[in-house]
Amino acid sequence: MRILAKIxxxxxxxxxxxAAMARAVKRAVDAGHEVIVVxxxxxxxxxxxxxxGLVERxxxxxxxxxxxxxxxxxxxxxxxxxxALVHDLCSAGVRAVGFAGADAQSFHVRKxxxxxxxxxxTVTSVDPSLTxxxxxxxxxxxxxxxxxxxxxxxxxxDHSYNVNADLAAGPLAAALRCDALLFLTDVSGxxxxxxxxxAALTRAQCHELKLSGVISGGMIPKVDAALAALDAHPQAVxxxxxxxxxxxxxxxxxxxxxxRFLTN
Length: 264
Description:
Oligomer: single chain
Radius of gyration: 17 Å
Structural class: alpha/beta
Helix content: 25-40%
Number of helices: 8
CATH architecture: 3-Layer(aba) Sandwich
Low-confidence stretches: none
CATH class: Alpha Beta
Strand order of the largest sheet: 5-8-2-1-11-13-14-12
Number of strands: 14
Strand content: 25-35%
Distance between the termini: 23 Å
Largest sheet: 8 strands, mixed
Mean pLDDT: 93
């Protein structure tokens, strides 16, 4: 099975959690799966921006990214976070290779325009050549979601664009022909009103749970990203699952862990 594991920045901040995630990827690879890692780094971007005296602004969960912040995003995602994760993966025995959208023109974006929040983009095209070549040779692609503007798209081209990793996961999983897309995060899954994990959800059920306030706060963008991923790749197993433990990736594939999203 080819698995895209989207890992949030919160799971990568602490060395022990990052090392545990690396061991989880190693277990999945040893079990015969091909793993593609896509990661965020919002907290790390926030911390470096603060140290540099940059003011953080958000719009509906997306970081307002001016030219200076775009440089920070590239430094943090493709540099600090990506290389720390690659190091831990390699230390765990995973042959990891880290890259961003500009490498081998692996993916490009269109500029987010409603409203204009700077160098923020949405994945619009993916060239899977580098990823497929790495997988064929037994490497684990580890992808940072910073990318250049696509040809023909309107917008400045002097900086890489910041791409929300949750929203990038769907189009990347589709283009890379993944069988499963796992959003590994700090929650056990989507919970009902009694705080019981929901094993599966349709789009209609998600809508009802939002209206009733059961899905609220930080869970809303997670669910929206999962549904968008399902739209982009309806054939894939799409789940929100907990990121804890050396076996979290393999456990996320089982029916009794996390929440799976269904087309109907």
